[in-house]
UniProtKB/TrEMBL annotation:
This is Amidinotransferase. Gene3D superfamilies: L-arginine/glycine Amidinotransferase, Chain A. The active site is at H191 (proton donor), C289 (nucleophile). It comes from Lentzea tibetensis. One of its GO terms (biological process) is arginine metabolic process. InterPro entries: DDAH-like (IPR033199). Belongs to the DDAH family. GO terms for molecular function: amino acid binding; dimethylargininase activity; transferase activity. The keyword Transferase applies. Keywords: Hydrolase, Transferase. The keyword Hydrolase applies. PANTHER family: DIMETHYLARGININASE, DIMETHYLARGININE DIMETHYLAMINOHYDROLASE.
Length: 296
């Protein structure tokens, strides 16, 4: 059996046992994350299918859920840095969209939606003030880790709704890593990080989880070739943004509603850590959207 820890705003853990066949031992690695508190969170415009300004939102609840997510990372031994939010930028909480960091090199973001454009420069200044020397701002539209996923060996790069295809070659040139382009076709899954996430980026055989229907037929074939052992999510997993998850190689922080996906990753030897982030999902975000990884 494996234990699943559920943490919500009340910060009271609930343990759920999931039957698990033989699976390899998983090893966590300490990660460094950058997050931004949702102090000004609201839904006042619609730039993706999840956003509905007519529905009420609670900034207080968003702060509680974000704090529980940050506390979860720190409880698991990870280092979390925090950037100050800016009034008038309600989506700045989704830090993953503002930078891609590999081996200490930073490729900033260039947002497609004008409502989020100003976020990019706030993050650029944070990187410079934090001692990063190699910081490059893109010329092509690129929503950073929203559409860029590092496997430990290559960069998976999504396009179709937000990030321009030209940003993929720019990322390869700036970051100096091989890039594989993937075409997204379902507007609900407008970013790569709501359709796919890395479970293990430290092994010789990286392991991912993904939702095939979010991708074009050709991209599905690419994913099957690259990751023949992948965890395949179903529609229920996908529509609760269960794939907007964060793994440290052992613990997988994911939305509490993604029970089928949690069982699948547990069967592979990982430990799901389920968090309630339902308020931020009203803007189309989950744990990964709130979390930029600082590599190197």
């Amino acid at each position: 059996m494996t234990s699943v820890s559920i943490f919500g705003p009340a910060d009271e853990p609930i343990t759920l046992d999931i039957a698990q066949p033989f699976a390899p031992a998983r090893v966590s690695t300490t990660r460094r994350y950058l997050m931004c508190p949702p102090r000004y969170f609201t839904v006042e415009y619609a730039i993706n299918p999840w956003m509905d300004p007519s529905q009420p939102t609670s900034t207080e609840l968003a702060m509680e859920q974000w704090t529980a997510l940050k506390d979860t990372y720190e409880r698991l031994g990870h280092d979390v840095s925090v950037i100050e939010p800016q009034q008038g930028l309600p989506d700045m909480v989704f830090a993953a969209n503002s930078g891609t960091v590999i081996d200490g090199r930073v490729l900033g973001s260039r947002f497609r939606a004008e409502q989020r454009a100003a976020e990019a420069d706030h993050f650029r200044r944070w990187f410079l003030e934090s001692g990063y020397k190699a910081v490059v701002m893109p010329t092509a539209v690129n929503e950073a880790e929203g559409d860029f996923t590092w496997t430990g060996q290559l960069l998976l790069a999504g396009t179709g709704f937000r990030t321009d295809p030209g940003a993929h070659s720019e990322a390869q040139e700036v970051l100096g890593v091989p890039v594989v382009s993937l075409q997204l076709v379902d507007p609900r899954f407008y970013h790569l990080d709501v359709a796919l996430f890395m479970l293990d980026d430290q092994s010789e055989r990286p392991l991912v989880a993904y939702y095939p229907e979010a991708f074009s037929p050709g991209s599905q074939r690419v994913l099957r070739r690259l990751f023949p052992d992948a965890v395949i999510a179903n529609d229920d997993d996908a529509v609760c943004l269960g794939l907007n998850a964060v793994s440290d190689g052992r613990h997988v922080v994911m939305p509490v509603e993604a029970t089928n996906l949690a069982e699948q990753v547990a069967r592979r030897g990982f430990e799901p850590v389920l968090v309630d982030i339902s308020e931020l999902r009203k803007s189309g975000g989950g744990p990964k959207c709130c979390t930029m990884e600082l590599r190197g």
